[in-house]
Amino acid sequence: METILGLCIGIGLSAACGFRVFVPLLVMSIASLLGWFEPMKGFEWLAMPSVCIALAVATVCEVAAYYIPWVDNMLDTVATPAAMIAGTLTTMAVSSGEMSQFASWAAAIVIGGGTAGAVQMSTVAVRGVSTATTGGVANPLVSTGEWIGAFLLSILSLIVPVLVVVLIIVLAIFTVRWFREKKKNTLNSQTPW
């Protein structure tokens, strides 16, 4: 049961990494310093005040950079692999000691990195649509939603991880349906008859 709970927390934190790379790590660090969260062996560095300060600075810089027009689109090229790495690390930091080291890392890479990558790719798509349709004017609104989503998802992942996983699955289904409908409407509007 502890393994499943750890994976649920990891999935939620990884999804948050797909929105903003540093926000979930900062939330984990603050929770560790407050004694609300104990990272797994090897990730005790999250509970260091200097790491918390560094993550806070990195978070502020990342969030601010996404408000600069056209820079936000360029950041996505760097943020995609960074989100996958952060998703892997967050999942590994909460993984259970019941699994072997190999199984823990394999699960963290596949589940954590995969979840973060999928969420990041959807944010890239949303930002691309926003840039194409509004010339980037609506991108700050998208950026605000992403960092707020990352913050709330990170906190909820530590408090109610199973609910977060259900929410992520529902949102994934909704997103896939939305993209399919959008593609279908685009194809229908291009049909000459």
Task: Give a description of the structure.
The chain is mainly alpha-helical and 193 residues long. It has one domain (2-190). The chain is built from 7 helices and no strands. Helix 2 packs antiparallel against helix 3 (49-65). The model has no long low-confidence stretch (mean pLDDT 88).
Short description:
This protein is an all-alpha fold and 193 residues long. It has helices spanning 2-19, 22-34, 49-65, 71-94, 101-134, 139-159, 161-190. It has one domain.
Number of strands: 0
Work out the strand percent. Answer: under 5%
Number of separate helices: 7
Name the quaternary structure: single chain
Give the distance, in angstroms, between the N- and C-terminal Cα atoms.
57 Å
Given the helix and strand composition, which structural class is it?
mainly alpha
**Unreliable parts:** none
Mean pLDDT over the residues: 88
State the share of residues found in helices, binned by percent.
Answer: over 70%
Radius of gyration using CA atoms only: 18 Å
What's the overall geometry? globular
The main β sheet shows up as: none
SSE order in H/E notation?
HHHHHHH
Task: Tell me the count of domains.
Answer: 1
Protein name: DUF4126 domain-containing protein
Keywords: Membrane, Transmembrane, Transmembrane helix
Organism: Acinetobacter faecalis
InterPro entries: DUF4126 (IPR025196)
